[in-house]
Design brief:
Necessary for normal cell division and for the maintenance of normal septation. Pfam families: MMR_HSR1 (PF01926). One of its GO terms (molecular function) is metal ion binding. By secondary structure, this protein is α/β, with parallel strands linked by helices. It has one domain: Rossmann fold (3-Layer(aba) Sandwich), CATH 3.40.50. It is built from five helices and seven strands, in the order ββαββαβαβαβα. It has helices at about 35-45, 85-100, 120-130, 150-165, 180-195, and strands at about 5-10, 25-30, 60-65, 70-75, 105-115, 140, 170-175. The structure holds guanosine-5'-diphosphate. Guanosine-5'-diphosphate binds near residues 35, 36 and 176.
């Protein structure tokens, strides 16, 4: 898809009313620092439109990016910050859950996992939670450029096993430096838009 326009249309905090959009939504989840903003920027062909949520203490929000007036990218708050108080973590969790449960337009959830590491307990919980809510996440294995090509298959296997992913779960390796994987991710989105 040619991205002609990008607009951060809605920013939702913990108590905000979620928008009732009439176009399909594609959500992005992952732990802080996994490369979520970099991926979203790469997909939108923008250098720094989506801002990183990775500084501790920074307000966490659900951001809705309107793409070409055709679809929305939904940037979910990054999880996994050790320094954040449990009560606040729980609030974010509830906010994400409220979104997953109520959105009528959510078609794909991309769950981002760093290709270098075995999925964490938080990653696994997030995966299970997404599945529990009736979605089959597509996994994006980020920071592909940080490993040797020879390690790729082994790391993908580690992610698949670490998440205990359902058979057939799609895992797309991606690098925001080389942009490898970007076309495959867009194809995945376009397949859904055609349905
Ligand atoms: P977020 O917190 O998940 O939004 O993560 P960011 O997109 O802000 O990325 C966190 C850090 O990882 C930044 O320093 C990025 O430059 C770096 N990063 C993100 N994606 C990649 C990648 O594909 N390759 C490399 N080498 N670094 C990346």
């Amino acid at each position: 898809m040619v991205v002609k326009s990008v607009n951060l249309e809605t920013v939702c905090g913990i108590t905000s009313t979620l928008p009732q959009n009439d176009k399909i939504e594609i959500a992005f989840a992952g732990k802080s620092n996994v490369g979520k903003s970099s991926l979203i920027n790469a997909l939108m062909n923008r250098k720094a439109y989506a801002r990183t949520s990775s500084q501790p203490g920074k307000t966490q929000t659900i951001n809705f990016y309107n793409i070409n007036d055709e679809l929305y990218f939904v940037d979910l708050p990054g999880y996994g910050y050790a320094k954040v108080a449990e009560a606040l973590k729980e609030k974010w969790g509830k906010m994400i859950e409220r979104y997953l449960k109520t959105s009528k337009q959510l078609k794909i959830i991309f769950l981002l996992i760093d290709i270098r590491h075995e999925p964490s307990v938080n990653d696994r919980n997030m995966y299970e939670w997404i599945v529990y809510n009736g979605f089959e996440p597509v996994i994006i294995a980020t920071k592909l450029d940080k490993i040797n090509r020879s390690q790729k298959d082994k790391q993908i296997k580690l992610i698949r096993e670490g998440l205990n992913a359902k058979p057939g779960t799609r895992i797309i390796p991606f690098s925001s430096l080389s942009k490898q994987g970007r076309d495959e991710i867009w194809e995945c989105i376009e397949e859904i838009m055609e349905v």
